[in-house]
Design goal:
Number of helices: 25
Oligomer: single chain
Shape: elongated
Radius of gyration: 31 Å
Strand content: 5-15%
Distance between the termini: 87 Å
Strand order of the largest sheet: 4-7-8-9-10-15-14
Largest sheet: 7 strands, mixed
Structural class: alpha/beta
Length: 779
């Protein structure tokens, strides 16, 4: 009689015939059976066969062998339907076991390996995977991914994701929330708001405006899995400057009246302010001259000696103090966004600020202050990682020397040349300009740092605005995989690409259905505080299904360069024919997403994927399947979206002109990078020329990459080889901290080089290796 069996993990355990009978009975029940005695009889037959096999071989049978015998017995006794159910049950159990085994291995590595030895811990350069909260975040993330793969996704979608045909971004949040949002500070601050633990009053000081902006970003990120953007930051902060100016003016007026010996100085000061308001002269930066003239007369009429000098001092002191207060507020904002944490303390908020077009004195001061604070760096001179800053470029406002904000554009170039930020967006690009309505700041196209763009609104064409809207989810297609399988057959490539895009659209709709099952209660800040468009009209228990339709569902892609290399032997940087085919491929994908928009009445869009960890995941899988293919799978990463490969020798202007046409096709988001190996601070005119080239070439969103190194000992920031040019300290000196080397990978991921995973590190190293000449000197 059989007494032992060998489990899959090699352990020998007692044989339990009841387990065999129970499994057979469950399979029979699935097809209408109800005879347990028959199931037990079959189990006994299997037990006898297994015992005979054990005696014959002299070894204990395995679980897999027992299950094979069960299938055979069912078929031999005419129970084909029960056998089929048993086989399906067995396959499902195998799948669960494999998932659990893989998950436990992941948990083991997360627990016992440091971030430097574990790519999962370094998927995001801004999460410290060695901390308790960082590791706990990854525990939850990896468990949720496998739950969603196994139990939530359609099996064919799950298979496509697991196999690497597509990649579902933020899969761990599939059943929980949406991606990102563009926050309207003017609306949020009007009357104040709550983060769930008490109401915050409407701010009345620029420092409060800056602090509450950080709180809003932090609170909203806790409701979503992506980043948070403020699309009109300059306009949102300007009222805070106005309010602060009035307070400073009042306080200074009281002080000088008191010095002049005026009785009841405070009462007189308030009376003077009321008189100014009666003359439509509200104290403000832009009315200083008119206020000073009127104030002189009012002081003189009150017997204040030397009224002219007193009026001048009141205004000059107020101006100095408003400049200092605004700078300190912006400095605090930058410091806060690099130190405050969200998501259970695991990471700092992924924040983006768009500005550049407010021509009011208050808005201009906000922009000048945040740029100068960014230029100054953090406490020890470090380059701020966040917020991503995007300077909106527009003719007539800041592009040409005669434009009112041209000085701020120049300053933005200077700061970007030192600190990598701000990036630059271009409102005059035709696909951005078509939405622009003069006087309506919410129609100024904004970008979120990862390159996401949300403006078109098929669901409600009258609400084509940036504020209150964001991306719901996005999934990327592995273009090189399709190209490899095409074996040079371009027609087959397009046929398979259509199948993969349609599958992706189907998956996005499935995820959208889950998101629509949520209520306002599930998004206490995003929906509960009216951040998302029209959510202020909903009650706590109301469905968010309708308002979510204002968001975007996005198809992404990666590795266009490698796909072209595989299809015709060259990528789009090398050949006009490849460029034509590349535009045909991305244009084809855009047509498919447009068709999905028309079919479903939802905002489907196409994005040039911010690859992050995906660039390494896809290429590892494809190399394992197809081997090392020159120019395709022979590096640690696939090239980001539609970019010309970083290892290809191409000058700045040619790269811009090659990539610009793809911006018009990728309505869900895009970015073009220019790589410089020298120090752009040494030639700011050349830096500005590159930005002008982007604008004139039709780029929508662009940035200029260059090395930013920092010596934490002496505070030097610039380019450092092995020796600091400031203090002479060498890399790796005993007892001394290493140099910090800031590099950019995608629009959102900027971090020290040590924090990058292997694929990102390889890409950075290729940039350094292949950008050996100084672009700045060539221009």
């Amino acid at each position: 009689m059989l007494t032992k069996i060998i489990k899959r993990d090699g352990r020998e355990v007692p044989f339990n015939i009841e387990k065999i009978a129970s499994a057979i009975f469950k399979a029979a029940q699935a097809v209408g059976g109800s005879d347990y005695d028959q199931a037990m009889a079959l189990a006994c037959e299997v037990s006898e066969q297994a015992d005979a096999l054990s005696r014959e071989r002299g070894t204990t049978p395995t679980v897999e062998e027992i299950q094979d015998m069960v299938e055979t017995a069912l078929i031999n006794h005419g129970h084909a339907r029960t056998a089929k159910e048993y086989i399906l049950y067995r396959a499902e159990r195998t799948k669960v076991r494999e998932m659990n085994t893989r998950l436990m291995k992941i948990y083991e590595d997360l627990t016992f390996k440091s971030a430097k030895d574990n790519d999962i811990k370094r998927e995001n350069a801004n999460i410290n995977g060695d901390t308790a909260m960082g590791t706990m975040l990854k525990y939850g993330s990896e468990g949720a991914k496998q739950f969603n793969e196994l139990y939530v996704l359609d099996p064919k979608v799950s298979k496509a994701h697991i196999n690497g045909d597509i990649h579902i971004h933020d899969l761990d949040f599939l059943t929980l929330t949406t991606t990102c949002c563009q926050i309207d500070l003017l609306k949020l601050f009007d009357g104040g708001f709550s983060t769930g633990h008490g109401h915050l009053r409407e701010p009345n000081d620029i420092q409060s405006y800056a602090a509450l902006a950080c709180i809003a970003i932090q609170a909203n990120q806790n409701d979503q899995h992506g980043g948070q953007s403020i699309p009109t930051f300059d306009y949102g902060m300007a009222p805070g400057v106005k309010k602060t100016y009035v307070r400073l003016f009042r306080n200074n007026l009281i002080k000088f009246l008191d010095i002049a010996g005026t009785a009841e100085a405070e009462k007189e000061a308030l009376a003077i302010i009321d008189e100014l308001k009666a003359k439509n002269l509200v104290p403000a930066i832009g009315t200083a001259r008119e206020v000073e003239s009127a104030l002189k007369d009012m002081l003189s009429s009150r017997g204040v000696s030397d009224a002219e000098r007193t009026a001048s001092l009141v205004l000059s002191y107020t101006q100095k103090e408003i400049e200092r207060a605004t700078y300190q507020a912006m400095e605090a904002l930058v410091h806060n966004l690099n130190t405050m944490h969200s998501r259970a303390g695991a990471q700092i908020p992924f924040s983006s600020l768009n500005y550049g077009t407010d021509t009011s004195p208050e808005g201009r001061l906000v922009m000048k202050s945040i740029l100068l604070a960014t230029e100054a760096g953090l406490g020890n001179g470090e380059t701020p990682i966040f917020p991503i800053q995007i300077f909106k470029v527009k003719e007539g406002i800041n592009y040409n020397p005669q434009d009112p904000n041209y000085d701020l554009f120049k300053l933005a170039c200077r700061v970007s040349a030192k600190r990598l930020f701000p990036n630059f967006s271009f409102l005059d690009a035709p696909y951005n300009a078509q939405y622009y309505k003069e006087g309506d700041i919410n129609t100024e196209v904004a970008y979120m740092g990862c390159r996401t763009r949300v403006i078109a609104n098929s669901y409600d064409p009258d609400r084509e605005v940036v504020t209150g809207r964001g991306n719901l989810s996005f999934t990327s297609v592995n273009l090189p995989r399709i190209a490899i399988n095409a074996k040079g057959n371009v027609d087959w490539f397009f046929e398979e690409l259509e199948r993969k895009v349609n599958l992706t659209v189907e998956q996005l709709l499935g995820r959208f259905k889950i998101q629509c099952s949520k209520t306002v209660r599930n998004y206490p800040f995003l929906m509960g505080e009216g951040i998302w468009i029209d959510s202020d009209k909903l009650g706590k228990e109301d469905s968010v299904a309708e308002v979510l339709k204002h968001g975007t569902l996005t198809v992404g892609f990666i590795g266009l360069a490698e796909a072209l290399k595989c299809l015709i032997g060259v990528h789009h940087g090398e050949s006009d024919d490849a460029q034509a085919l590349g535009l045909e491929i991305i244009g084809f994908m855009r047509r498919l997403t447009d068709e999905a928009t028309a079919k479903y009445g939802l905002n489907f869009s196409l994005i040039g994927t911010p690859a992050e960890g995906l660039s390494g995941r896809f290429v590892r899988m494809d190399r394992a399947l197809f081997g090392e293919i020159p120019g395709v799978t022979d590096r640690e990463y696939y090239t980001n979206s539609f970019h010309v490969p970083v290892y290809y020798d191409i000058n700045a202007y040619s790269k811009i002109k090659r990539e610009a046409p793809y911006h018009a096709l990728t309505n869900g988001g895009h970015i073009t990078y220019i790589e410089l190996d020298g120090d752009p601070c040494e030639n700011l005119d050349a830096f500005e020329e590159i930005v002008h080239c982007m604008k004139e070439s039709g780029i929508g969103y662009g940035a200029i990459n260059h090395p930013v190194d920092h010596d934490p000992v002496c505070g030097f920031t610039g380019i450092i080889g092995n020796t600091c040019p400031c203090c002479g300290r060498k890399e790796g000196e005993e007892g001394q901290p290493p140099f910090e080397r800031i590099r950019r990978i995608t629009g959102y991921l900027v971090g020290t080089l040590d924090n990058f995973n292997n694929a990102k590190r390889a890409e950075v190293e290729d940039r350094v290796k292949h950008n050996v000449r100084s672009e700045i000197e060539m221009i």
